[in-house]
Task: inverse folding
């Protein structure tokens, strides 16, 4: 019995040492940011929150201050494998404004695109927190989510994205004790692409099988990926926008390995447990080319209020998700989503009929239905999801899937190919970073509440 107990204690000590440790070189101080919870009739309560930058942007170093990761490669001495790397490496605090170009003011946050300090930082990904150690969970099934956004300084190839994902509220530290850093340091990211470019996943490093990117000096991908349901409330620049649900077979965060992840880094994009494409509503793609953009009906030269409503079959927060509706408010006018002009695809909201018809008419893989469609998306929304605020450029496809004609091998006149008026030569990250270093996006006035409670009619 003594030998068994001794072995158990030794094993526990070993497991405790294999962890994603917390660095002490830079204090972690989250920028404050408020949001509002509304009730029937439009009465809203201001909630004090804060934002945290994703762990993937942070400095990871040894106890002696050596880089665990430089450029797009791991230090082979400190990080020869996943377990040893997690034991040796520390995740440190962030200098939000000087390093990442992130500033907050009351209910708003500004994300700058290129920030030059000791090195060059490109974009950022933030999470809204309820307190210092936990992400804010939003339960929007049968509710609406509203925010203001300024995309006037986002040109072709850029994406200011605000979306919900099924991350653990504590960043995964309870489920994965080897993750000591937790939500306070922005850990636990996942989405429906099952990204494999994350340096740490579920308390483990992602060193094994790591392949540095051939066209990005800062990224690569490993054997592991991090999957969960994703609700893209807003992906946009000043030329195009889309709202897109991405269901998964299992809504909560889970780890995948290699090609079983699906997504862009795998041999089969549709081989994972999530829908990487989603069912998108992009007004331009659905035939209305005069609806969204500079000096158009929704004028991207000005701030836009964006309202997304999650309609259930019985009107309650426990019902089945049947529809996702979009409204815009600008200059005091409430404007409904544009109506599709594509033959065979009717309406102006995301519902099962729209998604089925869109996939058929556009000739797209229907992974949306395969992974449970709106019903599965609704389950994730009911459980609660974490809000992500980001700004990024696209090293995979130059953001053409959002704002240009894509795939480029198809004719722009084919149904579903034209998604925006940006040329197919646009969006190359090296050029975007050179030409638009001062680009930025501002998100503000976030509200959640019952249908028609968060905006003025």
Result:
């Amino acid at each position: 019995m003594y030998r068994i107990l001794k072995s158990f204690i030794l094993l526990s000590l070993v497991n405790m040492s294999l962890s994603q440790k917390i660095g002490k070189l830079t204090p972690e101080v989250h920028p404050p940011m408020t949001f509002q919870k509304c009730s029937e009739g439009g009465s809203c309560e201001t909630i004090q929150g804060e934002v945290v930058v994703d762990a993937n942007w942070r400095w990871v170093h040894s106890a002696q201050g050596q880089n665990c990761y430089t450029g797009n490669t791991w230090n082979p001495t400190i990080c020869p494998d996943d377990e040893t790397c997690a034991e040796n490496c520390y995740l440190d605090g962030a200098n939000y404004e000087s390093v990442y170009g992130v500033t907050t003011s009351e209910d708003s946050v500004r994300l700058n695109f290129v920030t030059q300090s000791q090195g060059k930082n490109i974009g950022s990904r933030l999470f809204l927190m309820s307190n210092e150690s936990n992400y804010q969970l939003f339960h929007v099934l049968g509710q609406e989510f509203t925010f203001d956004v300024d995309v006037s300084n986002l040109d072709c190839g850029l994406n200011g994205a605000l979306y919900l994902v099924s991350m653990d509220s504590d960043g995964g530290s309870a489920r994965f004790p080897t993750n000591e850093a937790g939500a306070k340091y922005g850990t636990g990211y996942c989405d429906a692409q099952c990204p494999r470019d994350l340096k740490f996943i579920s308390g483990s490093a992602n060193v094994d099988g790591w392949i540095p990117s051939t066209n990005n000096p800062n990224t690569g991908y490993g054997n592991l990926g991090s999957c969960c349901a994703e609700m893209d409330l807003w992906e946009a620049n000043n030329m195009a926008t889309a709202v897109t649900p991405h269901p998964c077979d299992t809504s909560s965060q889970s780890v995948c390995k290699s090609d079983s992840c699906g997504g862009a880094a795998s041999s089969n994009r549709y081989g994972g447990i999530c829908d990487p494409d989603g069912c998108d509503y992009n007004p331009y793609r659905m035939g209305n080319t005069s609806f969204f953009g500079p000096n158009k009906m929704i004028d991207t030269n000005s701030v836009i209020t964006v309202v997304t409503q999650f309609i259930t079959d019985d009107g309650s927060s426990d019902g089945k998700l049947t529809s996702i509706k979009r409204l815009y408010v600008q200059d005091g006018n409430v404007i409904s989503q544009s109506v599709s002009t594509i033959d065979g695809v009717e309406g102006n909201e995301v519902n099962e009929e729209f998604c089925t018809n869109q996939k058929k008419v556009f000739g797209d893989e229907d992974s949306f239905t395969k992974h449970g469609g709106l019903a599965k998306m609704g389950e994730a929304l009911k459980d609660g999801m974490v809000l992500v605020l980001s700004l990024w450029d696209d090293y995979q496809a130059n953001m053409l899937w959002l704002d240009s004609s894509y795939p480029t091998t198809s004719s722009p006149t084919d149904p579903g190919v034209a998604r925006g008026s940006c040329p197919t030569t646009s969006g190359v990250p090296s050029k975007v970073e050179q030409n638009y270093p001062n680009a930025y996006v501002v998100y503000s006035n976030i509200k959640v509440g019952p249908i028609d409670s968060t905006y003025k009619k």
Q: What stands out?
A: The two ends are 72 Å apart (CA to CA). The chain has one domain: 33-58+98-450.
